[in-house]
Amino acid sequence: MKSDSNSNQPQRIFLTDYLPPSFSIDSVQLYFNLHETKTQVKAKIDFKKIKDEALVLNGVGLKLLSIKLNEKPLAENSYKVEAETLTIPNVPDAFTLETIVEINPEENKACVGLYLSRGIFATQCEAEGFRHITYFIDRPDVMTNYSVELEADKTKYPILLSNGDHLGTQDLGNGRHLAQWKDPFKKPCYLFALVAGDLGVVTDSFTTHSGKKVKLEVFASHGKQSRCLHAMQSLKNSMKWDEERFGLEYDLNQFMIVSIDDFNMGAMENKGLNIFNSRLVLADPESATDTDFERIESVVGHEYFHNWTGNRVTCRNWFELSLKEGLTVFRDQEFSADLNSRPVQRIKDVDALRGSQFAEDAGPNAHPVRPESCLAVDNFYTSTIYEKGSEVIRMMQTMVGKKGFRKGMDEYFRRHDGQAVTIIDFANAISEPNGYDFTQFKLWYTQAGTPEVSVHEDYNADKKEFSLTLKQSCAPSAKQPNKLPFHIPLLIGLLDSRGQDMTIESDDLVINSDQLPVLHLKNSEQKFIFKNISEKPVLSINRDFSAPIKLNWQASPAEMLHLLKYDSDAFNRREACYKMILQELKRLITGLRGGASVNPQASVLDALGFVLNDSQIDVQFKALMLQLPGVDILAQEEDVLDAVAFNKAEKLLIIAFVKQNEKQILDLYKMHHALDSVGDRALKNRLLSFLVLAEIPQAVAMASQQFIQAKNMTDQLGALAILCQTDSSEKTSALQVFYDRWKDDAVVFNKWLMVQAYADLPQTFDTVKKLTQIKPFSLENPNNVFSLHRVFGENFLALAQTKGEAYKWLCDEILTVDKKNPQVAARLCGSFNFVKKLPDQLKQKAQTEIKRMLATDSLSKNSRELLESCI
Q: In sequence order, what are the residues at sequence separation of 6 or more whose Cβ sits closer than 8 angstroms to the Cβ of residue 855?
């Protein structure tokens, strides 16, 4: 790989440097002699030479004990061991290499490779973790068959798991036992996994459409089995859905999920042996919120769906990561939408996209869905790769329709099953069978940034013609100053004065295979004409958020209210409300920063009042319509991220809304408090937060009472989070009660950390520092760090209230974490994505601390890559 820096700095790698592997691997036999501090790994690998080159294997932190080629020991002068490689200059065309290495799982706090998590051996090999286990060609386009033997202490580790089919377990007679596993499907090494420990298990089965009975197992710590039932049901739902929607049947005889407390990722799709962060497995109503249940269902689906989109067909190199992740996010979003409310799911997905990915596109680390270069492969795991990648897939489905998309998916697997391929291979498999040209559309994969589309309307009553002129642009990014026009598919509708959808006729419309009208914006400026329009319509554009763009559209308050009340597209109905609130907050912020006396406009308050009082609106949908955009959204709209002004504007709007509707809000809270659906709880907690923020006299007591009387975690945590926004004795009491009840539960304890780190109070910084000293908090536990440091790092108001002191502390903490777990430290660096938009004094202090971190020689390449662009 070429380098764009001097030899003392980490080398940047480039997509254009890709070369096919010089060796293939026919098979791998692995023998693990598991020990807490001295695990030995014996690897027997059958190689074939493709190019006449030296064999270079990846290996990090390995103690080489033995090396043989074709069963003969190699002389020390015939190979070279360096910090990250093992090189053998001269090898035959076909040969077997046998190595034995020693590793220390107990000392491994990075949670990469093989490590110990509270007495359980576990692995994490994506992206480059396998090289921490044994010497290997650690890249995703080298696929082979694995046979695995695991030896361990029988008492400490009665459960021994790996990929594929379990061939048997035997007692070795010395207090140890041996399990044998064989995976019949070729896979890259990043999908290798093993687990060894003393675990409880929930067992079930699923019969595939061809009649094969698959054994299903979910493993967790003893006593937690009852909290695995939702994950098990989610797995069965996933298997059924994938058969029905995409015709994809599971291919092994068993499928396993293991819950681990110390895990950098959310979950990992290792073939047949998924390893999950415990927060995404363990759930019951007492310990998990409604959001937790939804998230577990989604992630279990996501990892299962990877069996085909990621495992059977994988990515050629890590620059192509969105091939598997963007596609599989799309699949899990569709799964969740089919099993729940499709409009609610779509709104939540877009809210998450805007809050995270749009911010990424607008920030210093913007990159395309298929990046061009990197310092650390681990930094590819971003919202752009995942969520924006999913939206690109969704646009393909919008263009060709669901039927056409299924046709393309079938072709994708026909062409590429068992291969490591590229994003372009996938796009071609969708476009070619459907007769589409995706040449311009593929720019979505290579250009960074969020396109902006401005809208100009004109209605000619005499001709009964409605014309729509659209202009697109995309702001320059650091590495891409000039952008070509994107191919943007837009679902569209026109509403008449009664709120009904009008029949639309246009030569510019393309009807997809689902009979939906799609506008294709391809030029920088493009005009679309609609004929036989009997009255001036109200435009509903980008329905269902058909393209991940920003719309610059100056619709009148009356038009927005019309869409809010009548649009048949649920997403755009909520979007109208969302835009009204967003524009009003921006207006209030501008006034406050200019020193003006401002008040919320009656038109916005009336719109919110309509939503509140319309009994025909689904309660879960209503809760989303009343949700205010967060500071992460406002930060993208403003030149300066003034968290103090935003907080004041938010309070002004909520106080005015509550003042105008206090009785209705109180009545609705009481009504939904007595009911027990997901939507009832969501709306009730939204209303309670408004009442407390508006300082209604009885509101804190209501929140305290809800906390005390709660029969489920959604109600209890909702009340606790609201109380944490107050400086009250009720908050102090509730926090102590919650801690005493849940301090020994690794999953729920993190919720206690989060609600305090999120508080918009001047003392939050002091609180967070104290929480790092409270047991069982540990900087070595990724979930603890994400729940406290990451949440606090995104609490812009709390950070601003410290006048920069918190940035010094946060940087010190990141440096400490970085020494042992660079992946976790790099994610904490996301706290600085908006640093260039901070007020000058705060920005200067934050950037001073960033420069101090960059001057640290031992700083990992993971953190360095993300921080360099923030100054």
A: none
C-beta atoms surrounding 800 within 10 Å: 20
| Count of C-beta atoms within a 10 Å radius of residue 766 | 12
Which residues face 181 on adjacent strands? 148, 166
Tell me the one-letter amino acid at 816. Answer: T
Domain match, 479 and 379 both: no
Sole residue written with tokens 């009553």? 461
Distance between CA 601 and CA 606 in Å, rounded? Answer: 9
Phi then psi for residue 142, to 5 deg, are -105, 105
Q: Per-residue pLDDT for 3 more than 60?
A: no
The string of DSSP letters for 674-742 reads T--SHHHHHHHHHHHHHHHHTT-TTHHHHHHHHHHH-SSHHHHHHHHHHHTTS-SHHHHHHHHHHHHHH
Mean pLDDT of the chain: 97
462/395 same-domain check: no
Residue 62's pLDDT band (boundaries 50, 70, 90)? Answer: very high
**Among the residues of 489-569, which ranges form H helices?**
557-566
Q: H or E segment at 277?
A: strand 273-277
Q: How many CA atoms lie within 13 A of 208 on its CB side?
A: 17
Query: What is the residue type of 346?
Result: R
- Nearest CA among 687, 681, 713 for reference residue 702: 687
pLDDT at 8: 57
- Cα 597 from chain centroid (whole Å): 41
CA atoms within 13 A on the CB side of 478: 13
**Which pair of tokens denotes residue 85?**
């490689």
Number of domains in the chain: 3
Both tokens of 779, joined, read: 């900087």
Output the CA torsion sign for 817, 819, 821, 826. positive
CB under 8 Å to 449, separation ≥6 — which residues?
361, 362, 366, 474, 475, 476, 477, 480, 483
Q: Assess whether 418 and 500 both reside in one domain.
A: no
Residue 402 is part of which domain span? 315-446
Find where tokens 């205010």 sit. 628
Residue 434 counted as domain residue: yes
Please tell me whether residues 324 and 383 are part of one structural domain.
yes
CA distance 522 to 519: 9
- 741's CB contacts (< 8 A; 6+ apart) are none
In angstroms, rounded to a whole number, what is the distance separating the alpha carbons of residues 190 and 196? 18
Catalytic residue check, 303: yes
In a domain, 578, yes or no: no
CA 277/CA 274 separation, integer angstroms = 10
Whole-model pTM over 0.90: yes
Residues 700, 723: contact at Cβ < 8 Å? Answer: yes
Q: Is residue 136 part of a domain?
A: no
Phi, psi angle pair for 115, to nearest 5°: -145, 170
Is there a single domain that holds both residue 330 and residue 422?
yes
Sheet with 452-460, strands from edge to edge, namely: 525-530, 465-473, 452-460, 550-552
**In 10 A of CB 837, how many CB atoms?**
17
> Which amino acid is located at 514 in the chain?
D
Q: What is the pLDDT of residues 315-330, one digit of tens each?
A: 999 999 999 999 999 9
Mean pLDDT along residues 430-453:
98
Question: What tokens were used for 585?
Answer: 């907050």
User: Which member of 98, 128, 151, 303 is catalytic?
Assistant: 303
* Contacts of residue 767, Cβ cutoff 8 Å, sequence gap at least 6: 756, 757, 759, 761
Render 539-596 in DSSP notation, one character per residue. Answer: EEESGGG-S--EEE----HHHHHHHHHH-SSHHHHHHHHHHHHHHHHHHHHHHHHTT-
